[in-house]
């Protein structure tokens, strides 16, 4: 006679349904929280876009009076505002190019090589990012005064390049973390020189990081107020003009220009994302 031993029933862990229930219960809360945070972030931008169409006839553009496209047709009707916008755009473009050219080799060296003083360079880059803008602005102002450099357009450019280089270097260094050095070594084994291997293998892999750092430089430069106010002299940029005009009333053209800058940034960022995805595919 054969006897069968029945193992005692064990409690099954409540990993399936119970966990699903917990996730279901958490999702509405996280979703509502996420949408509230996004609404809080996007509300000022929405107000700026809306009041660019406000049919106001006074300097105070805080009361909705009707819809109009007048301010888009007369975008450059205020000469001082137009010149301030041109200053901001040209400064941001120059700073983006210079900071990208200077910061990319630094990020490449930090991500690829181990050398004496590497930790100090890391500390210096992160210190420049973590330092308050008022401290950087005051330090640069003191430097220009000691050297006898008159403040103006080019001191703004130098100041912006100084605080933008660390962002490019760190972004490129992060991109280098996923770089496979054997690909460049294979290109060298196949007869490519150092410059050819860098241009055809390394640089295309770094382009998303370089582009991200360049976009970050442009965004930081075009809207900087604190450091610019210390080193601008008589040069007026878009943020400086808007702040000075806020005492008497901000014209609707400011909202239109801000909307166009915002939309332009979205287009460039979207193009960068699409370019990165195509390269990854």
UniProtKB/TrEMBL annotation:
Q: Which domain of life is it from?
A: Bacteria
Q: Where in the cell is it found?
A: Cell membrane
What Gene3D superfamilies does UniProt report for this protein, alphabetically?
MetI-like
Q: Which residues form the ABC transmembrane type-1 domain?
A: 85-272
Q: Where is this region: Disordered?
A: 1-23
Q: Which GO terms describe its cellular component?
A: plasma membrane
The UniProt entry lists membrane topology as: Multi-pass membrane protein
What biological process terms from GO does the record include? transmembrane transport
The record's annotation in InterPro entries points to: Bact_Polyamine_Transport (IPR051789), MetI-like (IPR000515), MetI-like_sf (IPR035906)
Q: Which UniProt keywords apply?
A: Cell membrane, Membrane, Transmembrane, Transmembrane helix, Transport
Membrane-spanning segments: 32-53, 89-111, 123-147, 153-176, 197-222, 256-275
Q: Name one Pfam family in it.
A: BPD_transp_1
The protein's predominant localisation is membrane
The family note in this entry says: Belongs to the binding-protein-dependent transport system permease family. CysTW subfamily.
Listed name of the protein: Polyamine ABC-transporter integral membrane protein
The taxonomic lineage of its organism, from the top, reads: Bacteria, Bacillati, Actinomycetota, Actinomycetes, Kitasatosporales
